[in-house]
Amino acid sequence: MSLKLSPNATRAILTLLPKELPPSLQSKSGNLCQVLSRYPRDGVGKVVHQSRWSQKGIHGCYWQVTRTQLKLEGKHGKAWGRLVWKGKLVSPREELIPGSLKYNWMSGCS
């Protein structure tokens, strides 16, 4: 069963929403903090990669997020993790993930 809303009801709902959705509700790529803020526990345990890695044909590379400190509703912050590069664990210890605010990130493996 589908629910159909009248045009007036649709307009009323749209006026209640902010013009720009907060990072936690956006589905596009963004800086690392924006991507991680969409998940429970601020993305701890998630696998993420820089979108430019896929564009350059670099596959099997990702960061496994182990800790985060997000602020400003997920627009800014820091994240730590372990790097897996082309299927091999590069950083056995947790380290600060570089380029978290500089590059676009996506969830999953490149």
TrEMBL record:
Protein origin, superkingdom: Eukaryota
A Pfam family reported for this protein in Swiss-Prot or TrEMBL: MRP-S34
GO cellular component, one term: mitochondrion
GO molecular function per UniProt: structural constituent of ribosome
InterPro entries per record: Ribosomal_mS34
Protein name: Uncharacterized protein
Provenance organism: Scleroderma citrinum Foug A
